[in-house]
Design brief:
By secondary structure, the chain is an all-beta fold. It has no helices and 11 strands.
């Protein structure tokens, strides 16, 4: 099928039974990472927004544009959810706290993997996340 690819998307080639997850390399280019068939059934999504509709239905919006209604109340903005691609349900939540493993998806440090040390809050501006390298 002809659909655009994005970060954390899964590409499956049925003839060769291969599965790939699209990630960034350190220069910001998409890089296919080979995964097994069990890992191809889910996707990690960052929560970009949490809100309530005018009919009082809570929902979250992920980085790839998905809207999930009636999420777990513990899910907040910037958390990561493990989304089952077949059912569309949230299987697990990874909190955006100090000590969490993070993957930088923008800026000069794109593609960098590390441990979140702390986040500087700047009201009215951007928050700055400090990341220690994983190695």
């Amino acid at each position: 099928h002809k659909y655009p690819l994005g970060f954390m998307d899964v590409v499956s080639i049925e003839k060769t039974d291969e599965h790939f997850r699209m990630l960034y390399d350190v220069k910001g280019r998409y890089m296919p990472l080979s995964i097994d068939s069990k890992e191809a059934n889910f996707k990690l999504c960052k929560v970009k927004r949490r809100a309530i509709t005018k009919n009082r239905v809570p929902y979250i919006v992920t980085h790839d544009g998905r809207t999930i209604r009636y999420p777990n109340p513990d899910i907040k903005k910037n958390d990561t959810i493990k989304l089952n691609l077949e059912s569309g349900n949230v299987e697990a939540t990874i909190k955006f706290d100090n000590g969490a493993m993070v993957f930088v998806t923008g800026g000069n440090n794109i593609g960098r993997i590390g441990v979140l040390s702390h986040v500087e809050k700047h009201n009215g501006g951007f928050d700055i996340a400090h990341v220690r390298d994983a190695r």
